[in-house]
Amino acid sequence: MASLPEVDTRENPGRYTPMPRWVKVSGVIALVVMLVVVITLLARGPHRPDMTGGGDIPASNTVAPGSGHDSGWWGH
Amino acid sequence: MVMKPRLRKLALTAHLVASMGWLGAVVVFLALAVIGLTSQDAQTMRGAYLVMQPAAWWVLVPLAVASLLTGIVQALGTTWGLFRHYWVLFKLLINVVATVVLLMYMRTFGIMARTASDPATSPSSIRALGASPSQHAALALMLLLVATLLAVYKPKGVTRYGQRKQRAEQAQRRAVSVR
Q: Keywords of this protein's UniProt record, alphabetized (chain B) (predicted)?
């Protein structure tokens, strides 16, 4: 943890060091993951009450199976 | 404003304790989620879901918030800055996203705890709560491991904002040395 921050020592004020490859790759991966999550959420649709088929869960505690919860806009 | 070495080490210690504590707590939650999903004993299954909610409020949430706050203090109090280096920026984003998702998931913990505590609910219905807790815990663990790797390896990469700040500071130092 003792390493020092890197310093851009170039003199030309008009040019910037290009974005490192790991940042671009990570950004693409994060974007793909977010898209997959959004598509999954949209594909599942809104929660339906008591999908368990057991009929023995009180209405106030009903959750859709496989999703485990309803948590607002994140809702799986 | 750069912190003095002793204060910087104290802030670093606080951040390490909070962050590693958070990581360890997530591992425990993953274990609880797997137990809840796979246990054949009804009592054990109920217990796993029951304990998740208070443990999340008393352990996960405080550690997540502490990690975020100490991380921001660490970044702003050193020459690394908060937005100057990509690895710091990525860690900040990971921390914010993980904390926000955790806070939103607290409602789910409540629902699961209420379901598990109801004696009228059958074990199969509790099992029907699904793999969501284990999925979330596994994803959180992956994110925190990535953040840890970034903190240790500190991959190179200065943002445009960081490059502008460095050049401004260099210009200032040159101006001072010329005088």
A: Membrane, Transmembrane, Transmembrane helix
A-chain CB neighbours of B156 within 8 Å are: 6, 20
Per-residue pLDDT tens for B138-169?
A: 999 999 999 999 999 999 999 999 999 999 98
**Residue-level pLDDT at A7:** 60
Contact A6 B156 (CB under 8 A): yes
- Half-sphere exposure for B77 (CA within 13 Å, toward CB): 17
Q: Which among A4, A17, A58 is the nearest to B163, CB-wise?
A: A17
| Inter-chain touch A69–B80, beta carbons under 8 Å | no
CB contacts < 8 Å between A and B, how many?
102
What pTM value is reported for the model? 0.80
What was the ipTM of the complex prediction? 0.77
Say whether residue B115 is in contact with chain A using an 8 A CB cutoff.
Answer: yes
Nearest to A66 among B108, B112, B130 (CB): B130
What crossing angle do the helices spanning A21-44 and B86-117 adopt, rounded to 10°? 30
**Cβ atoms of residues B49 and B36 within 8 Å:** yes
Q: Is B86 on the interface with A (CB under 8 A)?
A: yes
pLDDT in tens, B10-66: 999 999 999 999 999 999 999 999 999 888 898 999 999 999 999 999 999 999 999
